[in-house]
Amino acid sequence: MSEPRRFLRTVLTIPLTIAMTTAAVFAAPAYDAPVNETNAMALLKEYDPDGYYIVQTTKQMGSTGFSSWLQGSSNNAEALDTAVHEECHEYTHTKNDPLIYTDGGWLERETIYVGNGMADIIVPFLFANNTVYKTENFTKTIPESMRTFRYDDYVAEGSELSSNQEGIYGLLNEYNAYSWGMNNQMMLYPYYKANNTYVDYFNACANGYQAYEEFRYWTLGLLNHERKNAPDQYKVHMNNIDLVNAYCITTTRFRTMIEEFKKNAAVMTDSNTRDYTARLEYDMDWRGITMLENASAAAELKAIEEELFASATIGVNLSEEQIALMTEFVTRLYNLCLQREPDENGLKYWVNRLKSGQMSAAQVVQGFFFSKEMQNLNLDHEEYVERCYEVMMNRGSDSGGKKYWVERLNNGVTRMYVVRGFVESPEFTAIAAKYGIKRGSLKLGDVRDQNYGITSFVARCYTKALGRSYDESGLKTWVSKILNASNRKQAAIDTASNGFLHSAEFQNKKLNDTEYVKVLYRTFLDREYDAAGLADWTDRLQKGSTRDEVMKGFAGSVEFAKLMERYGIR
Per the confidence metrics, is the pTM higher than 0.70? Predict the structure, then answer.
């Protein structure tokens, strides 16, 4: 199957300002006003310019279905969720060009509304005989526990809806329609708030939240199934830049709304009018990131999505100036971090990720600092910290600050720990703001980064007891043991004594009694021996005390207790 030929990707539509002049002037209706077209349009005009534009456009093209979608709802605000969703479908099908027959079959086009009443994405796709890769090919592998209430309607075997019959294109159509339905309810938040009807708002948006999870999972799942079973189809779809852009824009729109919804929902839980806490926790648990996270092929699905975002060529509502700033930001990273000019493909890759909203400034910095090219520079700790100052603070280091970070690296934390510290600084926050990019933050996954005191305590045990620097595997093991212990103080004592001084490595040193006691001073008292003390402890050993008995004397000392407190171990 050959790839569909390219069409003009953006087409001008009726500008929003023109469309609005054709409507009557309405005031927002009361919440209990009769559910009808006049009141619904008034709400759209007042609160939701995108929904208003979609409906006005379909009306001007002859659609008469808007009123029918309002039926059965208890109020106009609730009715608009479904109405805008369905009119978005009408918009999609009415605005696309007539079918075109080619040698490969019928060529159709989906018209995906982007927003702002300005331009659409035309997604061409080819229907040759028996070439549609239906969702039912993939959904047979979905476990029963993940077959949510939309499963039978949209993707199950035998479904007659376009989401199955048109495969990936039908899924995209529904995904887009659900995003504009949720957007409508998000835009109506001030109206819901003014009428103290939070529960209606919550229910509508939570429904959109779940649709995001379902269609995102189904879309990526279908692509993954194609990748394994119909690679030619998969290649066509992944190379259809219009489809890629439409998916990424819709996903970014959803993610932006979900973050805003969570903020609004948090306010709702503090409301004096109703306690939504239990409902909120329930909905967030299973409407949140559960479907993709629970999928057996989660890593494969995320890799496909990552590839889609990396290939996208347009963002959401970005001006040329914003894109230029993003390009300048990435160029700066090449210059300062890798100390070279950007290559064309690399520059495009990172700018696309910023444009699509998939990555924040912090995540792009992470990509540079942990790239193979950066690792190949073989920077030592001091050079690495200096690079962090240059990139994320736009200046050279100060002696105190540099010493602070180098010391932490020497004491066992990862370089991610240091990079996160820099990206969360006021200086980098200001840099991200200068380029109009969301700063974001980074997560620390390594156990060594969870508690600096414990990590540095274990690192010193290597130095003092074994006379060498730590190895990464061993450091992780002992840090984890102390970190997860119910009694961290006792775990630290066991680590220093039984863990290190009973280790085969230490035993193989075959130290005499005098040298053994010297190590105890360094390990437990953090100092060199005094002559009288050394003589006393050595004398005890020579008179029959075991090494474990002497070691317990050091481990139970006041000095060692204070040493552990210094590392935050109590």
Answer: no
Burial class of residue 50, CB neighbours in 10 A (0-12, 13-18, 19+)? buried
The pair of structure tokens assigned to 24 is 């009557």
Residues 443-486 have pLDDT tens digits of 888 999 999 999 999 999 999 999 999 999 999 999 999 999 99
pLDDT in tens, 48-91: 988 998 899 888 888 888 999 998 899 999 999 999 999 998 88
Q: How many helices and strands (H and E) does the chain possess? A: 32, 4
- The vertex-294 CA angle with 290 and 297, nearest 5°, equals 135
How many residues in total does the chain contain?
A: 570
* Helix or strand run (H / E) with residue 327: helix 320-333
| β strands within 81-130, DSSP E | 100-102, 105-115, 119-127
For residues 310 and 438, what is the distance between their CA atoms, to the nearest angstrom? 18
Q: What is the model's pLDDT at position 149?
A: 81
The per-residue pLDDT for 61 is 81
Q: How many CB atoms lie within 10 A of CB 400?
A: 7
* Rounded Cα distance, 537 and 545, in Å: 9
In the DSSP assignment, the letter for residue 553 is H
Burial of 51 from C-beta contacts in 10 A (0-12 / 13-18 / 19+): buried
Q: H or E segment at 189?
A: helix 189-194
User: Both tokens of residue 197?
Assistant: 């009807």
Per residue in 477-526, pLDDT (tens digit) is: 999 999 999 999 999 999 999 899 999 999 999 999 999 999 999 999 99
